Amino acid sequence: MSDTHAQTVAFVREGMIAQQEPPVKDSGPIKWVRENLFPTWLNAIMTVIALYVIWYVLSGILPWAVAPTWHATSLSQCREILDGLGQSTDQACWGVIRDRWNQLLFGFYPQEYYWRPVVALVVLLAGLAPVLFGTFPRWFLGFSLASPFLIFMLLWGGPIWLPLMVALGFVLGVVAFRAADKVNPIAGVVAAILVPVLFWLFLAGPIAAALSDVLPIGLNSVTSKQFGGFLLSIVIGVSAIVLSLPLGIMLALGRASDLFIVTKLSVGFIEIIRGVPLIVWLFTASLLLNYFLPPGTNFDLTLRVIIMVTLFSSAYIAEVVRGGLAAVPKGQYEGADSMGLSYWQSMQLIVLPQALKISIPGIVNTFIGLFKDTTLVVFIGLLDPLGLTNSIRASTDWNGIYWELYVFIGLMFFIACFSMGRYSLHLEKKLQRENR
Question: What global pTM score does this model have?
Fold first, then answer.
């Protein structure tokens, strides 16, 4: 049998060939370039045009941006340095960033208290971590609830009793809700709103003042006029983002409700707020809001701006969440009803998690727009980073500086907005359960 096989087959391999590398054109950078840049003739032409545009832009920007002027202390010194090196004096003067970085970040906040905004930022990140990532122990949520009051005490200073009275108002609201909810659910919601509001209006101030006289514990006060730069933008933006999300969800549920008065009030609020430009609401916070407060009331301008920006953002968040509620299949509502869940239980356990997952891109888009809109506060006298550029240019050292400041401010805003966008993608992937 073997002799017959040897006579009919020309060659039989008796050993294995060693493993070899794939051809050069089918692996490594050459393969990546062929597949991503030059897969077809049309894509090859578009790639060449794109490379030319990139080279044209960079050839104009890089010679201006790459300048050894980081240690200059004035615009005239920048020009002396460039002239001494035989380079054009039209290049960037980055010494302004090194000289005024503290003003761009902290505004006119007292320099000896710079540690307080830094610690407040650490507290903010630690407080948001359990909410954003969900891998922290449950007891850490208590720190998240206390973090807004800690941040307020660190930034504004003063006696600790006023923030404690504000926190006590929330505790009283929860107690009132649980007590009244046993009688009637609507009475529970009304009590949860009225009790803390009445406490803050009539009792919180006198009690805090009396406790401050007896036991004056706290930090040195810093007024809102000393806030500025990115500190002001972060305070307004983060506060409005954190507060507008729950308010927007409540407005969306109110607009989708079957209760006539609740629906009409929610619709009226949303349409009025989003039908007026933000700049008008900022002027309202700056000029008109004091007319509606009791005589002699000195309500902080920054807090007024935070309230108006929060209301403005909540109207847009409400419409985004309403879109998510409409996208939830009707069977999910019917399934919740068939399980005997109450309205709040079905919303909390079944409907809202799905609606919020659908609404993530729209919500993050609204937050990014809100953070960028904080620059509008310059029109009511608050010095955000753009407002501080005028103050910096008013000095004789830096008169004539423009693009360097705008590039730095734009870069800082890009980092903040890009971080929010990346977190949105992370959250979408984390909640993507259809293919599991």
Answer: 0.81
